[in-house]
Amino acid sequence: MEQEKNAFKPEKAQCHCRKKHTPRSEEAQRQLQNRLNRMIGQLNGMKKMLDENRYCGDILIQLAAVERALQSFGYIILKDHMETCVVEGVKNGDLAVVDEAVELMKKLK
Questions:
Q1: What was the pLDDT predicted at 108?
Q2: Is 90 exceeded by the pLDDT of residue 26?
Q3: Residues near 81 by Cβ (< 8 Å), separated by ≥ 6?
Q4: Radius of gyration over alpha carbons of the chain, in Å?
Q5: Is the pLDDT at 36 greater than 50, yes or no?
Q6: Where are the domains of the chain?
Q7: CA pair distance 66, 42, nearest whole angstrom
């Protein structure tokens, strides 16, 4: 009976997370956190606008601002990735990192 119970339990998802070999500077980390916190604040503001039944155009303006902030954030992370992870990979003979970078760029469009 115990085997039957275990047979239906989904396996624990494995984390495929990786860490950067070259850590971000404290200043870069702080700036990224500040940007994220600002976007979170904007999202919370949009939630409040919905709760208050605010005008659609006002919400759309805030939405556009958050989208631009996210896009900018993504490009900062991509630039860092290219300057560190991709360069290190190529130097170590890992050319697959270039293909990965191209796929990441496609996702940011």
A1: 87
A2: yes
A3: 101, 104
A4: 20
A5: yes
A6: 27-108
A7: 7
Cα 78 from Cα 32, distance rounded (Å): 12
CA-closest candidate to residue 97, choices 18, 6, 26: 18
CA separation for the pair 64, 47 (Å, rounded): 14
The per-residue pLDDT for 14 is: 52
| Cα(67)–Cα(6) distance, integer angstroms | 44
14 is written with which tokens? Answer: 């494995």
Mean pLDDT calculated for residue range 56-79: 96
- Dihedral (CA of 11, 13, 16, 19) sign: negative
25 vs 27: CA distance, rounded Å? 5
* Per-residue pLDDT, 62: 96
Return the pLDDT at 17.
62
Phi then psi for 16, rounded to 5 degrees? -105, 20
Q: CATH homologous superfamily of domain 27-108? A: Metal-sensitive repressor, helix protomer (1.20.58.1000)
